[in-house]
Each structure stands twice: as C-alpha cells, then as structure tokens.
C-alpha cells in the first residue's frame, strides 16, 4: 500500500505546471525578510527575481528550493503542494554563484555525478548530450580549474539539468564573471533555457541581466514585489518611483494636473505645460492634484536654443542650460539644469553631434508626449536611485 507521502513525492516529481507561491513569507525574529506574497511562475518560462541586496529575492528562491522554511504560505509545483518536502525530494535543482564543482573530478564526471548517485550505470549518452547542449563536449576530460569562469558556469548548469528538474533555480549565477563574459553568458543561458524548455527562476541584482534574459521580471523591494511584468512593459510603464529609478534612469518632474481632456492629461511644471497619455498615468489625475511626470533619457531630443523654431509642433518642451556632458562612445550623456528638474538627463546617439551642445549652452529639451508617464507624487521621488546605482 502506497503512503500519501510517497504519492505526493511521485506526483511532485512527475507533475509539471507552474510554480505557485501563495501567501509565502519569511520572518527572522522581529525582522521580515519577505512579506507574504502571491507569485506565479509560468511553466517553461525564464523568470527573474530582480532587486538590490537584502530585498528578499534570494530568500524567496531558497523557499522554492526547500532550503528555507517559510513562516507562512505554501509552495506549489504544478498541482502539488511541496511546502513540507525536503530539498532532495523536490523536482528542483539550484545553480549557485560559486558553481560548487568537484575539483578532483573531470567535467564528464561532474556532470555525471547526479546520475551515478541515483544508481544509473549507463550515463554516456545523457552526459554527452548535456555537454553538447552547453557546448563543452571537447572539454569533457579537463578538470574544473582548467576551464574559464564561463565554462565552469555552464558545467554547473549541465550538472543541474541532467537530473531533469521541473524547475532550475539560479542564484546570481553570473555574479563572479567579468562584464564581457557576463553578457555572453546571458545569451548562452537564454539559449539553453529555450532549448530545454524547463522553467528557470533566476535571482539577480543586475537590471540588464534580468531584462536581457527573462520573459517576466518581478522587481522586489524591502521584501515585497513592487511590480511584475515583461521587461519592456516594466521599463516603459513603471508604476512606482522605485521601479522607474531602479530599472535604468528616469527624469521625474514634480508637476500639477491642469486639465484632463479625452485620453490625455495636461500638467504644469515650473511654468511649462506637458502632456501625457492618461493610460500611462498611475496617479490620480484631478485638476490641482500633484503628479510626478517621467520620461526616459533616451526618449529626449536636445536642440540648441537658436534652432528652437525647427522643433515640430505637439512635442513636450522644457528649456534649460547644459551643465555637464559625458562622451561614452555610442552616445553622449547630457545633464541639463532646468527649472522643472535641476539635473535632467539626456542620452543622445552620436550620429551628427552639434558642437554647440557644450556646458553653458541654452537648449530646448523636447520629446513625444506618448513617451511620458505619470506617477503618484506621494511617493519618494528618489526611491530606487541608490539601489540602481549600486547594482
């Protein structure tokens, strides 16, 4: 007769489906690491938990893995509640930043380790396929110390995937790599995930990493999910100042609602009138109400004041004085001092650089109103700035 525990273990191992966290939370004494949250990771997706150090993302990952016991809530893999199952009985494998490869074993045996531990004697075909997947077939008989950091990372992924987990958890797996290699590995991990079709849940503090690889991103802050969505949607339509500042750079302008007509909201900021789509304004849009108007630096054009007459009608405009410029190759970053925003940032591609656009020049900043978003002014305008710079 099969016990319920055995049935649950078998179903958890056999069942696919989404990863569902229901009211999951974690406290350590009086400190709350993760406030109770509900989160669904779609089956077969590449999902990122993104946030600064101490935001609760790694704790959340460890609760999925069974390495941390939740203080509240449940973890479901497919239809099965695995909250009470120990890590080794969950259909989940984890890849850590340290890789944790066995230094005395060659790459072949590192990858084969999980199969041999389960008593599988014929491992050649599976190990060969997995080494081919991570493009390390020719390195099979080398020891870990003979490989680069990126190659070691791929060995760690192969060793985890050979066990055919339903979910692969990645805890800052690229953190130890240099920038160029990290970018290469972002594409490699996405390729591997697409090929195997397994659910990947990836923890990172690196915004670019999450945006490059993930189908969906949960931005975490102080133990809560600030916003969840596709990378492009989070970037284009932030719902909080934290997300606006943490994901890239945003110019946030303190403004007052003037009128709302049709689908647009008109606001006043230091004497200038700006327009934004009502659908992109998450703040109350009543006349006289306060709102933070946001626009990304790369959406803005910079025109010397002498040429202001050439700017097309219907664009949002602000005048100011260039206070600083930084040439960074593909673009030049300008900081403009204007009444509405003392450090307005503009990123301009280096196509036809105007030599007049130098510190001290009077300029007009202008952009398409459709690229403007609005946030609730009750929030901290600088939320997420320090975290974004540190990440």
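-> sequence recovered:
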């Amino acid at each position: 007769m099969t016990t319920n525990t055995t049935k649950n273990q078998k179903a958890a191992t056999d069942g696919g489906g989404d990863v569902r966290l229901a009211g999951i939370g974690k406290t350590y004494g009086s400190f709350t690491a993760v406030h109770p949250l509900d989160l669904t990771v779609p089956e077969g997706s590449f999902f990122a938990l993104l946030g600064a150090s101490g935001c609760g993302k790694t704790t959340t990952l460890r609760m999925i893995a069974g390495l941390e016991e939740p203080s509240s809530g449940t973890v479901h893999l497919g239809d099965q509640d695995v909250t009470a199952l120990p890590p080794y009985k969950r259909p989940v494998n984890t890849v850590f930043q340290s890789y944790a490869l066995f230094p005395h074993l060659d790459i072949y045996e590192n990858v084969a380790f999980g199969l041999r531990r389960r008593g599988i004697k014929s491992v050649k075909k599976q190990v060969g396929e997995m080494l081919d997947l991570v493009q390390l077939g020719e390195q099979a008989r080398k020891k870990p110390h003979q490989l680069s950091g990126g190659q070691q990372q791929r060995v760690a992924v192969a060793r985890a995937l050979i066990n055919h987990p339903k979910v692969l958890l990645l805890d800052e797996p690229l953190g130890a790599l240099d920038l160029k290699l990290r970018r290469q590995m972002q594409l490699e991990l996405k390729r591997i995930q697409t090929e195997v079709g397994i659910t990947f849940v990836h923890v990172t503090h690196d915004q670019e990493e999450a945006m490059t690889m993930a189908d969906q991103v949960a931005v975490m802050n102080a133990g809560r999910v600030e916003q969840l969505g596709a990378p492009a949607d989070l970037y284009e339509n932030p719902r909080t100042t934290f997300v606006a500042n943490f994901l890239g750079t945003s110019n946030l302008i303190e403004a007052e609602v003037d009128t709302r007509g049709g689908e647009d909201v008109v606001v006043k900021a230091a004497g200038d009138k700006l327009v934004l789509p009502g659908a992109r304004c998450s703040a109350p849009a009543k006349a006289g109400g306060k709102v933070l108007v946001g626009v990304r630096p790369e959406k803005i054009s910079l025109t010397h004041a002498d040429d202001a007459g050439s700017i097309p009608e219907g664009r949002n405009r602000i005048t100011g004085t260039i206070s600083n410029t930084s040439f960074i190759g593909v673009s030049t970053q300008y900081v403009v001092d204007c009444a509405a925003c003392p450090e307005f940032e503009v990123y301009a591609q280096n196509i036809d650089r105007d030599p007049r656009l130098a510190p001290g020049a009077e300029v007009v900043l202008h952009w398409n109103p459709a690229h403007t978003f609005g946030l609730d002014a009750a929030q901290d305008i600088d939320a997420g700035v320090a975290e974004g710079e540190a990440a």
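The chain has a mean pLDDT of 90.
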